[in-house]
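Hello,

Our lab assistant flagged a job as stuck in the queue for most of the afternoon. It eventually completed. Since we weren't sure the result was trustworthy after the delay, we are filing this so someone can double-check. Below is the sequence as submitted and the structure that was eventually returned. Let us know if re-running is recommended.
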Amino acid sequence: MPVTADYHMHTSFSGDSDAPMEDMILQGIRLGLTEMCFTEHQDFDFPISKEFPAGFFETNPDSYLYDFLKYKEKYADRIKLRFGIELGMQPHLSKKNAAFAKAHEYDFIIASSHLCNGQDPGFPEFYEDKTQEEGYRIYFESILDNLKVYSNFDVYGHLDYVVRYGPKKDEGYSYEKYRDIFDAILKKLIAEDKGIELNTKGLSKGLRDVNPCTAIIRRYRELGGEIITVGSDAHTPEQIAAHFEQAAAILTACGFRYYCTFENRTAAFHKL
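-- returned structure --
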């Protein structure tokens, strides 16, 4: 396994996972990982619904840190563990997210767009007055809006996350169709020395490609981007490091010679 660090995963400190942290760690060790970074959800103002009650996607960072430090010490001779967070981006949350990010010394911060204009693009209501293509474009434009007002993060997560949940998923979707907005996003990230992640969860969900799609990863590299992490977006031990051999092949094909890990918000490069 050329990639031995999983940099996107959730435990029971995230509302959508029941996995004990120690179970995730033990599975990572069994798989031969050298490093794991937990990235629990912190999505302020997530719309309340039957599926997602108030606070569902908000973690308790103090409790999370307590367990993390306990297991980091316990397994120090077997695997490197990193303390991360996945911040849900919305333009009006820039100050609130900034305060949250500064309250603890995270090793790694993922910025992610799980919402668009206050709506969940995974719900049919998001597409009631628009086509899938229109909805996707609005979602991608919202990422650029977030980048204009918030910069305290290390990588932007699963840039085309929306295709996991659209009416026809990734059918008819391509980087080329949204080239203008994706290029603006990638150029902004590179100018501010920010990275992206290769997230394998799309493959686990039956999509044709990783998130973001291979063409976006290739374009990021063509434009001069170098900072890229690899994450399974695991919510159970069984999902850890899923499709990592394919991920390594994609990175190599896109021109990457290294992938990244982080400690104290500083990137380290590991040869593929």
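-- support follow-up --
The delay was a queue issue, not a problem with the job. The result is valid. The CA atoms of residues 21 and 241 lie 15 Å apart. Helices lie at 21-30, 61-74, 94-102, 132-149, 179-191, 201-204, 214-222, 244-253.
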